[in-house]
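Dear support,

I submitted the protein below through the web form. The confirmation email said the job was done, but the results page showed an empty box. After a refresh the structure appeared. I'm attaching both so you can tell me whether what I see now is the final result or a partial one.
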Amino acid sequence: MDLQQLRYVVEVAATSSFTRAAERCFVTQSALSHQIAALERELGQRLFVRSSRSVRLTEAGEAFVVPARAALLAAEQAREDAAAAVGEVVGTLRLGVIPTVTAVDVPGLLVAFRAAHPSARVELQVGNSDALMAAIRRGDLDAALLGFREEVQPTGVASRLLASDRLVAVVPSGHALADLASVRIHDLGGMTFADFPAGTSGRAQSDGAFAAAKVERDVAFEADSAELILGLVAAGLAVTLLAPGVVARSSADVVTVDVRRGPVRNEYVAWDAAAPRSVARAFLAVLAADRAR
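What the results page shows now:
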């Protein structure tokens, strides 16, 4: 049994696919399958049930994958600690970001991180704030850039506030509200909205504002992408509420209108509160330097 075999098992368990696991491990599927089969023979147990449509862990596989994942993390930590002893940052930074992050220039930040730590690798995952925060707590991510409505703060993780923005109403060019300096939540009642999926942190900002104002709204269009939401608005199909920075970086033909006492979105950087890895600490240092400029 070796670490490479453990890595193959963990990747197949994570993807439920030998093909996708092989792609993520940069090996052929036959090589990965051969190594897992050899490990199963050594253990005397089948780890996966394979069919033409799916791959799932056996009971033995479920028991095996948890310590296998822990062993891989321990080996990675040992490598990082040895490098840190001589001042080098190695390993993979697993970073999560929301699709509407505006507090920092993510590509520019990662360029600065790679320039400062050329031996480190970066993996980027895009998702909603609640899911990314949970991934940090599970140890699946090292850090994340999150966004929450004003009344909510990250929980179970260490965090630092990066920026606050009051959401603006976004309407099509030529809309009845387009020429106004500002509107109230009540002025938006009865309009058709495009927004993020129900239950996500991105949606909660608008839902909370309308609930507090006791105004009902019709969310006819749900999308994970801010660009798609803005496209729906530009097409005259809906209006929405978004952070002004999100709209500013889009080419959609839309108009923003201030919302009096509208919802505020706070952006945070979050990381493992108990034992941040060296790559996470290095990323936070690069982020702090970027913010100080």
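Response: this is the final, complete result; the empty box was a page-load delay. The two ends are 49 Å apart (CA to CA).
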